[in-house]
Write a structure and sequence with these properties.
Length: 597
């Protein structure tokens, strides 16, 4: 069953509506039981609803009422948490409101022969109308909302975002207030089950009326809250702009990418922004980017509208830094007052590292001469003065050697990339070679400790990637192995501790060059060595493994033994990562100072 849930969860990565994404991003951590219910949403919903259907067929109204109550409460609890399966159901159209309507119809079918069915049906209509109104109010508020300050890494948000999120949360998932309103109406059906002689028959009318009125009250309360927020919108905006201006920001980090990609695209740059002496501000265009963000000293502002972006381009800001070629980048690129800089989010031989869209930016900051060569090889003719070599500031902590206690087992980090959105960028070994390599590695080097860190986007296109992750996690269960996704370790932490890296063509191998330690790179396409190195010249000095684990044993022996490619690897390091006597962080700081002074 867990395997089925994993495969379904792979499909459930589509973004929600912006206001719901924001509510999810600002939600505090859920209790363990609620998290468990969300993780098992398929069965949490399936079992009580099937029981409700059986009660309908068996003409057992009391059992149907109990099953309805169980199903409604479980649905409410499970939707308190953002889960891939929940997103999948939403994407397929089976949203909580529709599920509630189907539950109500099933219960009405069980109550149909009884006089209590009519009052209950009226209450159901009232609840459904209130549910629709809450969603409409949330959408209305989001369209009119000002830019909002977000505190990444915090369990509680500050005003005014907290008030906006409270309005959005009232319509997220299965709203508890409306579940309660219908539950009150359902209680009116209980005495009718026992016949007209019951002394509580009056509840059959009173309870549905109370439930309907409560739903109306919930809607009115939300409408008043929305009205108050819209009334103070201008004041909230002025306060935010005053706070940001007081920080004297000189640059703006512009975040727009595929849903939730800030985990891999943005977080790697945050230590660099935090270390620079220059002040900046981060503008995030999609709410799905907020929750994955790590804590940072940069003020983070959610600004989904172009008008919001214009407001945040303060007079003191001289440069805009972009981390990905997001579709919404054009909304800021039109500002000719700023210097626009493409930082990118990695340095590798992937096709995405040399993008023709780079022509739209005033400067492209790259690690070393190899990156400039990639653009030239791809036919992207940019003048030399458009390139600025800054090294890889993220890799600066890797310059120190790994410290091992005597007798401590060596660490191999397996960090496969994701499968890519296009065949041209399909470099991953995870589902085709991953489990076999890990199994063989444990046989060849029995004392090895394997740290496993798959790319966070793995499984976006190929569900088989999740099956491979599950298999590798099973192989590494127990012992001293580390499943990085189950820890707070960053990629830099992992690279710093690895004695040997096992990876695919990606920026991971480029960054690891800073350590000088050996790396093994996969060749899942089965290219000859000459073809592979011609296509991916930054992999020279790395040990190559082909399909069917061709060359794997020898690569492991060389990496753990004489390391014959060490000299070639060290020579390649300067070409890929640049040569900056004061370090890449200093190079980044100097480049930023030139733009913003």
């Amino acid at each position: 069953m867990r395997s089925i849930e994993r495969r379904l969860a792979t499909l459930g990565r589509a973004p929600l509506s912006e206001w719901e994404e924001l509510a999810r991003a600002a939600a505090p951590p859920p209790p363990g039981l609620v998290r468990w219910l969300a993780d098992h949403l398929l069965w949490v919903l399936l079992v009580p609803h099937l029981a409700l259907l059986v009660a309908l067929v068996a003409r057992a109204p009391l059992i149907a009422v109990l099953c309805w109550l169980l199903a409604a409460v479980l649905d409410w609890a499970a939707t308190r948490v953002d889960s891939p399966l929940g997103r999948l159901f939403d994407y397929a159209g089976l949203k909580p409101q529709l599920r509630a309507a189907l539950r109500s119809l099933l219960l009405l079918g069980a109550l149909a022969p009884l006089p209590v069915a009519v009052p209950y049906a009226c209450a159901v209509v009232a609840v459904q109308l209130a549910w629709t109104a809450l969603g409409g109010l949330a959408a209305l508020l989001w369209r009119a909302a000002p830019p909002l300050r977000y505190l990444p890494g915090q369990t509680h948000q500050a005003e005014p975002l907290r008030s906006y999120v409270a309005c959005y949360a009232a319509a997220v998932g299965a709203p508890g207030a409306l579940v309660l309103a219908e539950a009150i109406a359902v209680l009116g059906a209980v005495p009718g089950v026992f016949g007209p002689t019951s002394m509580l028959t009056w509840l059959a009318v009173v309870a549905p009326v109370v439930g309907a009125l409560f739903a109306l009250f919930v809607t009115a309360r939300s409408a008043l809250a929305v009205r108050r927020l819209l009334h103070r919108k201008t004041a909230d905006t002025e306060i935010l702009l005053s706070e940001l201006t007081g920080g004297d920001p000189h640059y703006l980090v512009y975040v727009s990418a595929g849903a939730g990609q800030s985990r891999s695209v943005v977080n790697q740059w945050l230590p660099v922004f935090d270390a620079t002496p220059h002040n900046g501000v981060m503008v995030v265009r999609e709410a799905s980017q907020l929750k994955p963000l790590a804590a940072t000293r940069l003020p983070v502002v959610y600004a989904p509208t172009t008008r919001g972006v214009e407001l945040l381009t303060l007079e003191s800001i001289k440069a805009a830094l972009y981390l990905a070629y997001g579709e919404k980048n054009v909304h800021l690129l039109r500002d000719q007052r700023l210097k626009h800089v493409m930082l990118g989010h990695g340095d590798s031989d992937k096709a995405s590292s040399a993008n023709p869209q780079a022509r739209a930016y005033d400067q492209v900051w790259v690690a070393g001469p190899a990156a400039v060569g990639r653009f030239r090889a791809a036919g992207i003719d940019l003048p030399d003065d458009r390139f600025v070599l800054i090294g890889r500031p993220q890799a600066e902590p890797l310059l120190a050697g790994v410290q091992r206690d005597p007798g401590e087992s060596p660490v191999v980090l397996y960090a496969p990339t994701f499968e890519g959105y296009y065949e041209q960028t399909a470099y991953s070994s995870l589902d085709t070679m991953g489990p076999a390599m890990v199994r063989r590695l444990l046989e060849v080097v029995p004392r090895v400790r394997v740290w496993f860190k798959p790319h966070p986007a793995s499984g976006t296109v190929r569900p088989s990637m999740l099956a491979a992750i599950a298999e590798i996690e099973g192989l590494l269960a127990g012992g001293e192995h580390v499943l990085v996704d189950h820890t707070d370790l960053t990629l830099v932490d992992c690279l710093a501790q690895a004695d040997v890296l096992l990876a695919d063509v990606s920026s991971v191998t480029s960054d690891f060059l800073a350590t000088g330690r050996p790396a093994i790179v996969t060749n899942p396409a089965g290219l000859t060595t000459e073809e592979f190195l011609a296509a991916y010249p930054s992999q020279r000095g790395l040990y190559l493994v082909g399909p069917g684990l061709a060359g794997f044993d020898q690569a492991v022996r060389d990496a753990f033994g004489p390391d014959p490619l060490r000299a070639e690897r060290l020579a390649l390091r300067s070409h890929l990562l640049g040569d900056h006597p004061d370090g890449p962080q200093a190079a980044f700081d100097a480049a930023l100072a030139r733009l913003t002074s």
